[in-house]
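4.2 Preliminary Data

To establish feasibility before requesting continued support, the project team ran the inverse folding procedure on a target of 432 residues. The structure was first converted into the token representation described in Section 3, and no sequence information of any kind was made available to the design step. The complete token record follows.
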């Protein structure tokens, strides 16, 4: 295979064959093709696209580039959830224990974050002693015994995606639906779950900026999953503003714990309940969503969901005292209230900008080498639709170093406050 012929073929808008895609992924994983040639092919894909068969073939080729996790040792239907990412997205820490308390087997592999806040692993590691790296045997044993484990992805899971994503990130080729869909689904399929729920986000804080693009991406990923015999559903959710109130690792653990006790923010609780209903039906633990809703409400009311999270933390060597008493979690040296300078109603909040500001105070990473401050972040006190008066607290900033004037101005610029009342959009646009 002359790789330049594949570049020319895709540049001309022609479909690559299954064999050509397999050869490309195999050779690139084995370091036999230079980055500059693969970059050219990726740009051709961004401009010319891929059809359904090509996208499915690319997913399969990446999926088989490394280990395939065999979860057959876990009894019952294994369920997983994936979010395309967003500001304040701590869903796995609340949804997983809720579903597990209802009998769903949650065998989840998560990653770290690069950007506004840490990934699920970074958030869990803000709990003292929490171990994200279990052996395969311990992982399977824990899911069988407890019904849930959340661990880090093995380094040999979908190595092709790791190489391609790093290249896409620096060559302007991230925003391609076939490339996004194959990246996400190759990892989810390699991780071995039977049922997968996708939370596909749209808006200023998401990859997909419009509802229509989010639906198209979700449809593409559902088609890939179905072609490989997996039960895949998708929620299309709004990321125009942060999810919940907490943005930052230990702060998000606190909010997840509060939600498991029935005391979480309305929007985050709504998302977890909707996702939980879908997962219970997917895992055949409930006949329908009405039955699933009653089950979820019960495990929150009787404390079983909270106890399931605490049991997972204990099993993975975390300090459960910090779950019983979340004020023992890492705390910032300084907590600064951000005071509204004007009266009015909040019409808009730029989620991505607020996330970036959280990263600047230490909640996230700008580069892989950056160290996260688990205590840093932002806790919102007012959100879109709320009435504010001059002097009201918009948010509390948790930080260790003084905030400069530029940071404060950027924070206020992320808000659009007007005199007329605001109309809020529903959090969940559609379920597919």
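Position-by-position output of the design step:
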């Amino acid at each position: 295979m002359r790789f330049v012929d594949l570049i020319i073929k895709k540049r001309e808008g022609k479909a690559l064959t299954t064999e050509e895609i397999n050869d490309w992924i195999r050779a690139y994983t084995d370091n036999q093709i230079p980055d500059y040639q693969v970059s050219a092919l990726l740009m051709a894909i961004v401009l010319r696209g891929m059809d359904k068969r090509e996208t499915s073939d690319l997913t399969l080729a990446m999926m088989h580039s490394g280990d395939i996790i065999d979860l057959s040792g876990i009894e019952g239907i294994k369920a997983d959830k994936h979010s395309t990412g967003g500001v304040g997205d701590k869903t796995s820490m609340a949804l997983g224990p809720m579903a597990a308390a209802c009998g769903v087997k949650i065998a989840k592999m998560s990653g770290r974050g690069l950007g506004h806040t840490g990934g699920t692993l970074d958030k869990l590691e803000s709990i003292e002693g929490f171990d994200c790296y279990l052996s395969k045997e311990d992982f399977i044993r824990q899911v069988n015994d407890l019904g849930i484990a959340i661990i880090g992805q093995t380094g040999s899971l979908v190595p092709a995606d790791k190489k391609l994503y790093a290249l896409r990130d620096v060559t302007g080729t991230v925003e391609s639906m076939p490339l996004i869909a194959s990246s996400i689904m190759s990892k989810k399929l390699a991780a071995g779950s039977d049922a997968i729920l996708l939370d596909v986000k749209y808006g200023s804080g998401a990859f997909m900026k419009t509802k229509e693009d989010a639906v198209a991406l979700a449809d593409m990923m559902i088609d890939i999953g179905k072609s490989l015999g997996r039960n895949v559903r998708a929620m299309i959710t709004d990321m125009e503003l942060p999810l919940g109130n907490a943005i930052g690792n230990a702060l998000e653990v606190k909010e997840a714990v509060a939600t498991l006790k029935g005391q979480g923010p309305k929007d985050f609780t709504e998302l977890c309940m909707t996702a939980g209903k879908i997962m219970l039906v997917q895992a055949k633990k409930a006949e329908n969503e009405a039955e699933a809703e009653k089950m979820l409400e019960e495990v929150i009311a009787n404390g079983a969901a909270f106890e399931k999270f605490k049991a997972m933390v204990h099993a993975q060597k975390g300090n459960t005292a910090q779950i019983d008493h979340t004020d023992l979690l890492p705390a910032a040296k300084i907590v600064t209230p951000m005071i509204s300078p004007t009266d009015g109603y909040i019409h808009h909040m730029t989620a991505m900008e607020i996330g970036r500001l959280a990263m600047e105070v230490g909640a996230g990473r700008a580069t892989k080498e950056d160290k996260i401050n688990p205590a840093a972040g932002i806790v919102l006190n007012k959100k879109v639709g709320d009435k504010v008066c001059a002097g009201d607290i918009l948010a509390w900033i948790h930080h260790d170093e003084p905030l400069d004037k530029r940071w404060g101005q950027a924070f206020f610029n992320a808000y659009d406050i007007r005199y007329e009342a605001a109309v809020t959009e529903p959090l969940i646009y559609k379920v597919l």
